[in-house]
């Protein structure tokens, strides 16, 4: 287990005319390989702002963000399931899933396995506009894990899912963590939280850890990290 991304006393202030909002307020946190961290908090509590700082799409007003050298600007270094999904509308579902490969990143999962694990069978030749929002979101999850990134960031990745499909997505994220990624997901789904390693609560930009960290020995004993069908990467 190694540190992949570390935030030290990070503050981000959004300014809109006379109004200033401390969307992220003096947050220090470390995200490590082989760990799945959940970020919970009400709408507007700063989850997306914090994730954008972790990703590097935004920069802090105060404090610093440290990234391991494995966390480069490729899909293999850091992959994102954005809140807005970010699928390419002119590509098919299959081509969207394979986009990181087409851009030259090495493959770690077979598309067929991801399509099965995420219930996307029969949709690969359609374009995003021709599938449901939930299916689009599962496509974005498949695209984010296909290269087994060093860091995987997912912003409310189960927001458009029923329970069964939420479980499928969590299984894929847990598998990515078990295979070595540092996984960070923002979520509202309390029922998912007992399956992740660490839970951080955001309240008006302030972060506090909820669960004690689960030991690696306990984690390895649980055998709960295979997606349906038991596929492993490679
Ligand atoms: P969450 O993802 O938890 O819903 P956000 O990080 O999106 O929260 O937003 C945190 C706070 O910052 C909210 O009050 C939101 O309105 C505000 N905010 C987010 N982005 C901007 C922006 N670009 N400009 C001004 N205010 C923003
Ligand atoms: Mg958000």
Question: What would the keywords be for this entry?
Answer:
234 residues, alpha/beta, single chain, binds adenosine-5'-diphosphate, disordered C terminus, six-stranded mixed beta sheet, three-stranded antiparallel beta sheet
SSE pattern, N- to C-terminal: EEEHEEHHHHEHEEEH
Q: How many individual domains? A: 1
What would you give as the CATH superfamily? P-loop containing nucleotide triphosphate hydrolases
Helical element count?
Answer: 7
Name the CATH architecture: 3-Layer(aba) Sandwich
What is the end-to-end distance?
Answer: 20 Å
Radius of gyration: 17 Å
Proportion in β-strands: 25-35%
CATH C-level: Alpha Beta
Query: Order of strands in the sheet with the most strands?
Result: 5-6-7-3-8-9
Profile the largest sheet. Answer: 6 strands, mixed
The helical percent reads 25-40%
CATH topology: Rossmann fold
- Determine the structural class based on helices, strands and strand pairing: alpha/beta
């Amino acid at each position: 287990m190694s540190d992949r991304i570390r935030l030290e006393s990070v503050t981000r202030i959004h300014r809109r005319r006379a109004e200033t909002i401390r969307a992220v307020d003096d947050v220090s946190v470390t995200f490590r390989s082989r760990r799945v961290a959940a970020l919970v908090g009400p709408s507007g509590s700063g989850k997306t702002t914090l994730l954008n700082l972790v990703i590097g799409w935004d920069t802090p007003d105060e404090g610093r963000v440290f990234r391991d050298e494995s966390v480069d600007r490729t899909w293999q270094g850091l992959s994102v399931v954005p809140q807005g999904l970010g699928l390419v509308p002119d590509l098919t579902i299959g081509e969207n899933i394979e986009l990181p490969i087409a851009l030259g990143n090495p493959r770690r999962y077979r598309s067929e396995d991801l399509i099965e694990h995420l219930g996307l069978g029969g949709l690969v030749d359609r374009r995003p506009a021709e599938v449901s929002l939930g299916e689009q979101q599962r496509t974005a999850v498949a695209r984010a894990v296909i290269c087994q990134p060093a860091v995987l960031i997912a912003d409310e990745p189960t927001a458009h899912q029923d329970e069964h499909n939420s479980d499928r997505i969590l299984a894929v994220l847990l598998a990515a963590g078990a295979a070595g990624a540092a996984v960070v997901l923002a979520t509202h789904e309390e029922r998912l939280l007992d399956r992740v390693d660490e839970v951080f609560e955001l309240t008006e930009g302030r972060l506090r850890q909820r669960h004690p960290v689960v030991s690696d020995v306990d984690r390895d004993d649980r055998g709960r990290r295979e997606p349906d069908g038991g596929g492993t990467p490679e």
